[in-house]
Design a protein that fits this description.
The protein is an alpha+beta fold. The protein is built from 28 helices and 13 strands. Keywords: Cell membrane, Membrane, Transmembrane, Transmembrane helix.
């Protein structure tokens, strides 16, 4: 319909009058069909493209969630009822003499977004918990912003259609089922407050670009722009009451030119957007930043509208006419909204527990106030030196009195008398730049402060972790939690520990929780809440199949990320055709005079440890990318006294290869060993690794208390018969294929298969599939924390090959 009636200019006037909707269309002309027909047209080409995208994406998503029939019903009902209810409200308003209804009664609306928003709200009842919240918060925030700052009839119809959509969805909602993991109420509160702050920041932009400014908060939006009010607007404002004599002064258009005033008006809004992001992540500093800016906006608006006795004029309220009470109400709301936002955030400070690093906030305050004082002093001092560059020539008192205006958005100064203006570029640069420089300092400082977060473990965390490990073991991969680089989190009882690393806002655990299984579900839930409070996405990485029930009960998806290979020493045997390669490796080592030595790093001589370091360095140099980390240990992890080494040493005490084995405890006793570090000399005998693993298995066969030997996990290399779909498969294949040419994860899995092991899949559990691309990047950075730009290029080339 858009292309048929004019893709660029929109439909002709005759079509608008016949099929568009509004008060005149329905009430005066009787076009009862117009609420439905109006949603199939658009005003211009840009709106056409946006509407087509909205229909394809939003309505397509709604149809996948609740089916074609329900989507069609939601589309028709929300389009019709949203407009009819809105027009009914306008009818009552016009009959009662209400100002907004009379002002917009002649406007005709054609708007396809009314049923799009309504259908999305209805579909939210059929979505999972995460998408349900996102649809509602984003959808309702958008229609509220438009209604409050633009205030056209179509904005009201859109808001009402969204509410009708919620009613339709509630009525036709599916039978209640397991709802999955719900984020904490703290998170919901933060998300809502962040949306409100974002609305206050984005709303003025809506006011600027809206074709009409009838919204309840349009006056506040105009104050944060460089738009100049018309004479009529000034007269209406002055008719509220004789609050200040400035209402009759000439508008100061000269203030509005130049880049400086633009930045002074824009950067406070951008700072509020930054604060909104910080609020969503639970930052205490963001809360105080939003409180300060919103309180300042409320005070400035109250001063500008003459509602506060701080304008320097006698404050005497005198009613001129009762018919202007609506203007009073609108201006009062424009003052109260940012003030209420500030008070609401202040009352909910407990929901923002994440503090900045020690001294960071103090540093921000010192820099902010220092720059304010310094720039003010520079303005006065340099202005005095350039006093003849202003018209009229300024005095020292003039400059001091003018200082506050340099840092205030120019919209708040429209009714202020201009005392002087610069007459050349030098004075103009000084006049316009000091305020912009100050707000740039505030903006950059806010970002720096929000990025600095207090994290880390207590001093005794390592000892507490080892105590939990000795008692509960933590599975075959549990000892990796002791490695440097992990942060540690404990339950309130102190009996369960979770090790994790935060990479790009993703908290990746090192294997599963360590502790009694009776605390498993509670530990996962509380750890997820802790991550949520810090604005992180929690990811449980390398967890075993026995944990899937815990995550399934929480509604978390899982995906396989690797295969663990397990040997049972009690049934170890190398007889049979399948073991021919292993027997050949053992025999080859015997003929070469190479023996296996079971030892630990601290007891080795300097000569042997030097050889191990050389072997490791040679191995790393062969790779085009740096040594992997995270769940793959290096030389530093060998030095732990609890870790055991199995070395291949010849008669000349020359080390051919080295493997390391991590212990698994239960009730203080070792019940298993996990292979970690594997390095060999380039010129070592063939099959030396097979020889070392086989010798370890034979040695453990002599110890009946050892229940398993784990050859560890080949990360990002699930077995070939794994069946997964969608994003999960794409992510797994991408990471595995990217790193395979250099590190050979799949080749490693094939090597371990020679030992006829038991295959135990390991999984990654995550709360939100939308975060999978970020999770993938975080995993790459976790395994390759020192990746340089040049090595990223190498990584991409490896993917292409």
């Amino acid at each position: 319909m858009g292309f048929a009636t004019g893709a660029v200019s929109g439909p002709a006037r005759s079509i608008r009058l016949l099929l568009g909707t509004g008060y005149e269309s329905v009430i005066d002309h009787g076009h009862w069909w117009s609420p439905l027909t109006s949603v199939f047209f658009v005003d211009n080409g840009a709106e056409l493209l946006l509407a087509l995208a909205g229909a394809l994406i939003v309505l397509g998503f709604a149809e996948r969630l609740m089916g074609t029939r329900r989507t069609a019903i939601a589309f028709l009902v929300t389009a019709t009822f949203g407009a009819f209810i809105g027009i009914g409200a306008q009818y009552l308003g016009v009959a009662g003499g209400e100002m907004w209804s009379r002002e917009v009664s002649e406007l005709w609306a054609i708007d396809p977004f009314t049923p799009i928003f309504g259908s999305a709200m209805a579909a939210s009842y059929f979505a999972g918990p995460l998408w349900r919240r996102r649809i509602r918060v984003l959808g309702l925030s958008t229609v509220l912003v438009l209604a409050l700052y633009s205030g056209q009839p179509s904005d009201l119809y859109r808001l009402l259609a969204a509410l009708v959509g919620l009613g339709i969805g509630w009525r036709g909602r599916p039978t209640p089922r397991v709802s999955g993991w719900r984020r904490s109420s703290d998170h919901e509160t933060r998300t809502l407050l962040a949306a409100i702050v974002g609305m206050v920041a984005v709303g003025p932009v809506i006011t600027i670009f809206s074709g009409a400014r009838f919204g309840l908060l349009a006056p506040l939006g105009l104050l944060l722009t460089q738009d100049v009010p018309t004479a009529g607007e000034v007269v209406d404002r002055c008719l509220l009451g004789d609050v200040t004599r400035q209402c009759v002064q000439e508008l100061s258009l000269e203030r509005i030119g130049g880049a400086g005033p633009v930045l002074v008006s824009l950067i406070p809004l951008l700072t509020l957007v930054v604060a909104a992001f910080g609020l969503a992540r639970g930052r205490r500093f963001a809360a105080w930043l939003a409180i300060t800016i919103n309180t300042g906006l409320a005070l400035l608006a109250g001063w500008y509208f003459g509602l506060l006795p701080i304008s320097g004029q006698p404050y005497v309220w005198q009613w001129q006419s009762g018919r202007y009470w609506e203007v009073t109400f609108i201006l009062g709301v424009s003052v109260l909204v940012p003030l209420l936002v500030a008070v609401t955030i202040l009352a909910n400070l407990r929901h923002f527990p994440v503090a900045s690093r020690t001294g960071q906030q103090r540093r921000f305050l010192l820099v902010t106030f220092g720059s304010l004082i310094g720039l003010a002093a520079a303005y006065v001092g340099l202005g005095w030196l350039l006093q003849t560059h202003f018209q009229p020539a300024v005095t020292l008192l003039d400059l001091i009195a003018d200082v506050p205006e340099r840092f205030i958005p120019v919209g708040f100064l429209r009714l202020e008398r201009v005392s002087f203006l610069p007459i050349d570029s030098v004075a103009a640069a000084l006049y316009d730049s000091v305020g912009a420089m100050f707000w740039i300092v505030v903006f950059v400082g806010a970002i720096v402060c929000l990025r600095s977060v207090v994290t880390g473990s207590t001093a005794d965390a390592s000892e507490r972790l080892r105590s939990v490990l000795n008692t509960f073991g933590g599975g075959s991969l549990g000892y990796m939690t002791t490695w440097t680089g992990n942060s540690l989190w404990f339950t309130a009882s102190g009996r369960t520990a979770i090790a994790y690393r935060v990479v790009n806002g993703i908290a990746i655990t090192t294997s599963e929780p360590i502790g009694p299984r009776s605390e498993a579900a509670e530990a996962v839930a509380f750890f997820a809440r802790m991550c949520d409070d810090n604005g992180w996405v929690p990811i449980f990485y390398s967890v075993h199949e026995s944990w899937q029930a815990v995550f399934a009960s929480m509604g978390w998806p899982t995906m396989q990320v690797g295969e663990e290979t397990l040997l049972r020493p009690s049934s170890w045997s190398t007889t049979g055709k399948k073991w021919q390669d292993i027997r050949s490796s053992i025999n080859r080592a015997d003929r070469a005079g190479v023996r296996a030595l079971w030892t630990s790093y601290p007891v080795l001589s300097l000569a042997v440890t030097t050889q191990i370091a050389e072997i490791s360095e040679q191995w790393v140099q062969e790779k085009e990318l740096p040594e992997l980390g995270f769940t793959l240990g290096g030389l530093d992890e060998l030095r732990d006294p609890a870790v055991r080494l199995m070395l291949a040493v010849d008669s000349a005490d020359r080390v051919h290869a080295v493997t390391s084995w991590l212990p698994t405890y239960r009730d203080g006793a070792i019940v298993g060993w996990t292979l970690d570090f594997m390095r060999r000399r380039p010129d070592s005998i063939n099959g030396v690794m097979e020889f070392l693993i086989a010798q370890t298995a034979q040695r453990m066969q002599e110890r009946p208390e050892i229940e398993f030997l784990s050859l560890s996990v080949a990360p990002l290399a699930p077995s070939s018969d794994t069946r997964q779909g969608g994003i999960a498969t794409g992510l797994l294949q991408y990471l595995g294929r990217t790193l395979e040419p250099v590190y050979g994860f799949r080749s490693l899995l094939a090597f371990k298969s020679k030992f006829q092991p038991e295959f135990a899949p390991v999984f990654m559990a995550y709360p939100d599939p939308v975060a999978l691309p970020e999770i993938g990047l975080a995993l790459v950075r976790a395994y390759l924390p020192s990746l340089s730009v040049r090595e990223v290029v190498t990584l991409v080339r490896g993917l292409g090959q």
